[in-house]
Amino acid sequence: MPGVPCGALQHHTVPVACAIICSWLLILVHSAFCQKPAKLPLVGRKPFLAAWNAPLDMCKLKYNINVSLDLFQISGSPRAVHTGQNVTIFYANRLGYYPFYNEQGVPINGGLPQNSSLEAHLHKARKDIAHFIPSEDFRGLAVIDWEFWRPQWDRNWNKKYIYRQRSRELIAQAYLNVTDKQVEELARLRFEKSAKEFMQGTLKLGTQTRPHGLWGFYLYPDCHNYNVHAHDYNGTCPQQEIKRNDQLFWLWNSSTALFPALAIRKGHMDSIHNLHFSQNRVLESLRLASLTSLPYELPTYVYTRLGYRDEAMAFLTQEDLIHTIGESAALGAAGFVIWGDLNLTSSRHNCSKVKAFLNHRLGQYITNVTQAAEICSDLLCQSNGRCVRRDPQAPHYLHLSRGSYRILSNRNGTFTVTRQPSKNERQMLADKFRCHCYQGYEGERCDSIEPEEIEEDNMINEDVEKEKKPEVNKDIQDSAVPLQKAFILTILLLLLNFSSI
C-alpha cells in the first residue's frame, strides 16, 4: 500500500462546538498515519546500497583468482577468520550460547531457550561482539542468523517441530497430574517467553555495545508465501502469517534494520511466480518497518543470492535480477545483500564463473539500478530521499534509460556510466515514482528541512532507556500502538458524523 504523503489530510467543515476537538484529533491521526521518514543511508547519500556477504576471498587464496568487489559499497566474508568487517553475520556458533538441536537431535547449549542460561549467553555474546566487531564506532550491518527455531510456537513445524515436542516433555517431567491441554499451554508460554528473551536480549546487547550498527535477524520478517506450486499463486502473504508478524512487534521494535530474504527457485524462472514471491516479501518488510516506536522507518536490506535456491551455481537470469534486486529498489528498500557459501569457491571453475557473472550480467545490472536510484533521488528528491513506486504493483523500475545512458565495462571489473540527459527525464520519473524523505527533510521533493531534526545518537539512547523499563510496561506499550490509532479514528468518525446531524 502506498504511504500517505504528509499534508494529504484536510479538515472538514464542522460546527464550532467540535471544530477544535476535531482539529486536535486530525493532528493525532496525521501523526499516526503519515509515512515516517526514512533513516539516512548507511553510506553517503546512496539511496540503494549494494552489499556483499559471500566468502569470495577463498578464490584468491586457493586459485589466485582476483574478483573485484568495487561494485559494492560495503562487504564482508562470512568466514569466521575475518573480523572488523562492515558486513558481519553471526551464525549460531558465533554469538553467545544459542540453544538448539542439531540434525541428530542432540541438544546444544541446552537445546531449548527455556532450558538455557540467558545470563551466560549474553556474557559470552558480549565477548563475541567485541571479537568480530572490535570497533565501538562500527557503522555497518550486524546480521544474526538463527534459523533452528522460530520464536512463535505455531511457526515451529516440520524439522522445527522438535522444539514443541521437547518443550512438552520438559513440562510433563516438571509437573504431575496435569492434563495434556495444560502441558501444551505451559510449554507454549515458557518457550515463547524464553525465545523472546534470547532474541530481544541479544539485540539489546548489540545496540548498546555497537549503537551505530544496524542490527537485525536474517530472514526476518518472513511472510511464508512459499506455496508457489498453487495454480492460482499470486505471492500474497497469508493473513495468518501477517497476523503473526504483527505479534512480533517486540522484535521489530528491538531491531535497527530488517533483513528479509529472497531465495527464488529455478523451477519457476519462466513464470511470473518469482516476481510475486519477491514483491510481497519486500512489501511485508516495508509494512512492518513503519510500525515501531522509532521516529523513522527501519531500513530494509534484502538478502538475495547469485544463484537459485535449488541450484546454487545456476546464476539468476536478467529477468530474475529484476524480480529480486530491481523489485527491492523500486519498492523502497534501503539496499540488498548478496549472500553465498563456500560452494561458490569450491573449485577453480566456480570461482571463474562467479567472476564472469560479476564482470558482466550482474555487474552491469547492479550498476544500472544503483545509478538509476541515485539519479532519481537527485532529480526528484534533491538527494534528500529515495524514490519509491507510486503503485507498488506497477511494472516500473529504477533503470537507466537506454536512450540517455550507456554502461561501459572496464578491464578491472568496474563499470562507467556515460550520460546524455533527456529533457523530460524528471517528469517521466515523477509520473511513476514519489519521494520517501530522509530524516530531517519533508515535502513532496524533500526540499524542506524539519523544524527539529533528531540526532541518531539521541534516538538510540532513548530506545535503550525504554528497554530498561519492566517487561510488563513494554508489553502494554506494544499493544497500545494499534489500539491508539483505532481509538483516534473511531472518535474522529463519531464526531464528524455527529456534526453532520
TrEMBL record:
GO CC list: cytoplasmic vesicle
Cystine links in this protein are 59-351, 223-237, 376-387, 381-435, 437-446
What are the boundaries of the signal sequence? 1-34
A single GO molecular function term of this UniProt record: hyalurononglucosaminidase activity
Could you tell me which SUPFAM superfamilies the record lists for this protein? (Trans)glycosidases
UniProtKB keywords = Disulfide bond, Glycosidase, Hydrolase, Signal
Q: Which InterPro entries match?
A: Aldolase_TIM (IPR013785), GH (IPR017853), Hyaluronidase (IPR018155)
Q: What is this enzyme's EC?
A: 3.2.1.35
Task: Kindly name one Pfam family recorded for this protein.
Answer: Glyco_hydro_56
Sugar attachment sites are 368
Where does the sequence pass through the membrane? none
Query: Active-site residues?
Result: 147 (proton donor)
The entry's family comment says: Belongs to the glycosyl hydrolase 56 family.
Designated name of the protein: Hyaluronidase
